[in-house]
Design a protein that fits this description.
6-stranded antiparallel β-sheet; elongated; alpha/beta; 7-stranded parallel β-sheet; disordered N terminus; single chain; 34 helices
Length: about 950
């Protein structure tokens, strides 16, 4: 029998029907250690045992074994072998205990945050609220919609939530789905801020993986944590069969309002992913399109039973599933004082039309938009406004629109019906053909405003210029650099264009270059592809609307690119307003200027402009406004009329009033004084402080320092380790096993910073922040050369694992300490049917059977610490101490059993509440009944089940030569 086999014992079937392999037990199968999730009897193959890997080679791998086919041995903690610790200061024992504390997932009953203060970001409690809600237990699983308005830091809120899930063992497999142009930005934030690595995959990357792995293997199992463009994954025909055969711990879908349209490829993707993940985080600043049923479908992805009637529901029905704040929400406003400058007013820059432009205004007013008493030459009512908007953008855009319309009409081959419109189009074509930048009043104003801002060859000033029309953007790129004084190569590099026609790599490169301080780009000309999710505020606080979208939502989204958390300067907005003296001309003062005023007013009063019209979608707002203009309404009449209509809809009035307020926003002046408020229902600070995470070492830095010395006695030689004691920088050559782990990091980061050759890490937050800032100012790479060491960092995880494997399987150490009698350190873990810990206890059990459930406190009182001496002597042999292990385990299990119900209560109550709500949920379809049964089964699976997993970690023994304690005077 091998040494490994000697620590296990075959288990015979139990006559009393007790579970042969209780959930949470460890078993030995095929030379590896596994954790039992659940087991059931089968008719022919014995017990079916669902497990997850524990030992290194199979860690986190899921498997199913049958006792009729495999020898399954239950690891018996009573057979733990005790070994003496010969290390100085009992360093080996202290490191091992700390490593076990770190590797043990926090239990499901721990609702408070454990890691929020350890990352590279400002301590802003409002950004912790989503994580608190996800862990509150108010929903069966960590599922929520983060609906904060533009700029509050949704990516950071997602990062905090994922970090807490990882600490609880619920974030091993993560899938993040975003629009293609924010892939790298999202990946960058999660690594640099949280040390959560995501491997970016596109269709080419997935094909590359498929070539490297065995035929038929799922490419999405190759990396544990990935980020993929929704435009890649929505190709369900190509990836559906892979996605249907994989489960995730957490799925994040950014800009999730794009999932609403039933039957769309994005919606189909969401329907595949939602049932195949534990945690689901949806993020969108504009998740509601004003349609109750559509929004109910989005909420249904999070919890299918949250809403009984998708057309009639209230905010309180789903408040446990979403959170929404604005910049003027009390908690946000209070915490952002001095950290986020208030935006400046939207400045209208009026540009009087040139003579050539006035001729076009005359033609449009006379022929295409003749007013109340006239008839348009076009048979398509909306097309004249398409012409107008093109012209208000630029003559280049008008040329393209006219040419496209002529081609469309000519293809119809209906000369009688199209003759008049074609003639009018050719007249416009003749008027616009000779126009150049010299004939453009807006172009002259743009150049003037850019020079006022300071843009030029000898300035670092940057500006983002928005336009709806690709033709306008491309034209500006050809004429603007020279007008600003750029020559030669500088002219080419000073201006970048970004629009939806570019590939995802080109779009990401535009965003990255604009955010690097020493990159030569000074003006980013962009379409509305950049109005959602893109951060443009790092080096820029100036924005110019070359043309103004006819939607309040779109204006706000544009402004939000520079008006967002992290903006150091007051955001400044300008809009070029083309004016005309032609009677009846619909120039920019008619629509654009009014929309700018209304957006600014809504932002200051409400914190958002999304609900002003009650239409909730930019494209719907624009179409509705044009139709109202055709009816003779003004802009203000149109906006107010639609708001009134929305408010008249009693079914949605109450809900939307709450939704577009601040859901989940705390009053900064209130306090939550209820220590039992583990669900975060109290006022004010919502959740009662940070999680009580047991630690033997005072800091991760102290643990890492001693672990390096233990694992690598001479790290200067073996790792080429260099320490800068003044700055706290650690520089070393990663060994082979650590290099292997680096494959989980972003590939660009590994390559650009040459991480396989040398790693630069630090616990100094200021140094890491400075490195990140320096990376943003570099034209070579946006990835910082120095990363902050957090509990999630691969280097910390690698060293923790190195410490654990130095002790043999089922071995425990003997520590000489200040105790009156041998005291066994025992870990007890209750789990649910899914194998996740529900209760974790760290106990000290004396030989006499006294149990204390504060192992860390016991260790400190016993003098276990870095200054303790190792006398290299013990009070009795290891065999005698091993004989006491069964009794110590029995006492510990009895202690756990006595208190189990009390510990279980905070976990059981929200599950019982959910099952009660589920009992009231009725759907008159077979699918609805199946969903109800599935959710009820899920609820039951989250409750504690079976016996606790017991493990002996160490034994404290008295020093035989220590002076006897003084006699008691009691």
């Amino acid at each position: 029998m091998t040494a490994q086999q000697s620590s296990t014992a075959p288990v015979d079937p139990r006559p009393d029907g007790e579970d042969q392999f209780p959930a949470g037990a460890q078993v030995f199968v095929r030379d590896e250690v596994w954790l039992v999730r659940n087991s059931v009897r089968t008719e022919h193959d014995g017990a079916k045992v669902d497990v997850v890997g524990v030992s290194d080679f199979v860690r986190d791998q899921e498997a199913v074994f049958f006792t009729g086919l495999d020898t399954i041995e239950l690891i018996d903690p009573r057979r733990t072998k005790l070994v003496r610790d010969q290390s100085s200061n009992f360093r080996r024992s202290r490191l091992f205990l700390e490593a076990v504390l770190r590797k043990t997932a926090l239990p499901q009953s721990e609702r408070r945050l454990a890691l929020a203060d350890s990352f590279l970001l400002d301590s802003l409690p409002y950004q912790r609220r989503p994580a608190e809600l996800a862990l509150s237990g108010r929903n069966l699983r960590p599922r929520l919609l983060i609906a904060d308005v533009v700029g509050l830091g949704k990516t950071l809120e997602i990062g905090l939530t994922l970090a807490e899930l990882i600490r609880r063992g619920r974030g091993e497999r993560i899938l993040v789905v975003t629009p293609q142009h924010v892939l790298e930005q999202f990946q960058h934030e999660l690594w640099t801020r949280f040390a959560i690595p995501l491997v970016r995959l596109d269709s080419v990357g997935i094909e590359r993986i498929q070539r490297e792995i065995p035929a038929g293997r799922n490419p999405f199992t190759y990396f544990k944590r990935v980020i993929v463009s929704i435009d890649t994954l929505k190709n369900t025909d190509q990836y559906k069969h892979h996605l249907e055969r994989i489960n995730w711990d957490a799925v994040v879908i950014d800009e999730s309002h794009n999932l609403i349209n039933r039957g769309s490829l994005r919606n189909q993707l969401a329907q595949i992913l939602a049932p195949r993940t534990d945690a689901l985080i949806l993020a969108s600043a504009t998740p509601h399109n004003g349609d109750a049923k559509s929004f109910a479908e989005l909420i249904g992805l999070l919890d299918p039973a949250a809403i009984r009637d998708p057309e009639h529901y209230r905010a309180e029905d789903i408040e446990h599933l979403f959170i929404r704040r604005t910049k003027i929400s009390p908690e946000v406003r209070e915490q952002m004082k001095g950290q986020w400058a208030d935006r400046g007013p939207s400045q209208s820059v009026r540009c009087a039309a040139t003579p050539a432009e006035e001729k076009i205004f005359e033609e449009l007013a006379a022929v295409w938009l003749p007013g109340e008493n006239g008839t348009s030459v076009s048979g398509v009512p909306l097309f004249p406004y398409t012409l107008l908007k093109s012209f208000l953008s630029s003559h280049a855009a008008l040329k393209a629109t006219v040419s496209a319309r002529i081609k469309t009409l000519e293809k119809k081959d209906e000369p009688t019906a199209t003759r008049a419109e074609l003639a009018a189009l050719r007249t416009l074509q003749e008027l616009v053909a000779p126009l150049t930048e010299a004939d453009s009043a807006k172009f002259a104003a743009l150049v003037e405003q850019l020079k006022v801002i300071g843009v030029g060859p000898k300035s670092d000033a940057r500006v983002v210029v928005f336009s709806e029309r690709v033709q306008t953007l491309e034209w500006l790129r050809t004429v603007l650099p020279a007008a600003l004084g750029f020559r030669g190569r500088a002219a080419e590099e000073s201006t970048r264009v970004m629009h939806g026609g570019l590939s995802d790599e080109q779009q990401m490169q535009c965003v990255e270059d604009f955010g690097l301080a020493d990159a030569p780009v000074r003006v980013l000309l962009t379409g509305d592809v950049a109005s959602e999710g893109v951060n443009l505020h790092r080096q820029c606080h100036q924005l110019i609307h070359y043309d103004v979208p006819w939607s309040l939502i779109r204006i706000e989204q544009r402004n939000g690119r520079i008006d967002r958390y992290g903006q150091a300067h007051q955001p400044q907005f300008r809009a070029l307003i083309l004016t005309s003296e032609v009677e009846g001309a619909k120039d920019d003062t008619v629509v654009a200027e009014r929309l700018l005023d209304r957006e600014d007013q809504a932002h200051r009063v409400l914190g958002t402009a999304e609900a002003v019209t009650g239409l909730y979608r930019a494209e719907v707002e624009e179409k509705s406004l044009i139709q109202d203009l055709l009816r003779g309404r003004t802009v203000d009449e149109s906006l107010d009329a639609h708001r009134a209509e929305a408010e008249a809809d009693a079914a949605m009035d109450d809900f939307l009033a709450v939704f577009f307020g601040s859901v989940g926003d705390a009053d900064p002046g209130a306090e939550n004084t209820d220590p039992q408020d583990t669900e975060g229902k109290g006022a004010g600070t919502s959740a009662p402080g940070n999680a009580a995470v047991p630690r033997l070492f005072t800091s991760t830095a102290e643990f890492l320092d001693e672990a390096l010395s233990e694992v690598f006695p001479d790290p200067t030689t073996s790792l080429d380790l260099h320490r800068d004691t003044e700055s706290g920088l650690l520089s070393f050559r990663p060994p082979t096993d650590l290099v292997h782990r680096l494959k989980a990091l972003p590939l660009d980061y590994v390559r650009e910073q040459r991480l396989r050759e040398r790693l630069l890490v630090t616990f100094n937050r200021r140094l890491a922040e400075h490195s990140l800032k320096r990376a943003r100012e570099s034209s070579t790479s946006s990835w910082p050369e120095i990363s902050l060491l957090t509990d999630l960092h691969p280097v910390v995880e690698w060293l923790t694992d190195k410490v654990l494997v130095r002790l043999g399987r089922q071995e425990a150490l003997i520590i000489t300490a200040d105790v009156p009698e041998p005291t066994y350190l025992v870990q007890g873990v209750y789990s649910n049917a899914l194998g996740r810990p529900t209760v974790v206890k760290w106990m000290g059990v004396t030989r006499g059977g006294t149990v204390e459930d504060d192992m860390v406190g016991l260790l400190r009182r016993s003098g276990v610490g870095p200054t303790m001496a190792n006398p290299m002597r013990h009070s009795e042999p290891a065999t005698a101490l091993e004989a006491g292990i069964p009794d110590a385990l029995a006492a510990a299990e009895q202690f756990l059993d006595r208190h189990r119900d009390a510990w279980d209560e905070p976990l059981r109550k929200p599950i019982d509440d959910y099952k009660a709500r589920l009992g009231d949920w009725e759907q008159p379809t077979l699918a609805g009944e199946r969903t109800k049964k599935s959710l009820a089964s899920l609820a039951d699976s989250l409750l504690t089940t079976g016996r606790p997993l017991m493990r002996v970690l160490a034994v404290l023994v008295p020093d035989p030569e220590a002076p006897a304690p003084p006699p008691s005077t009691a």
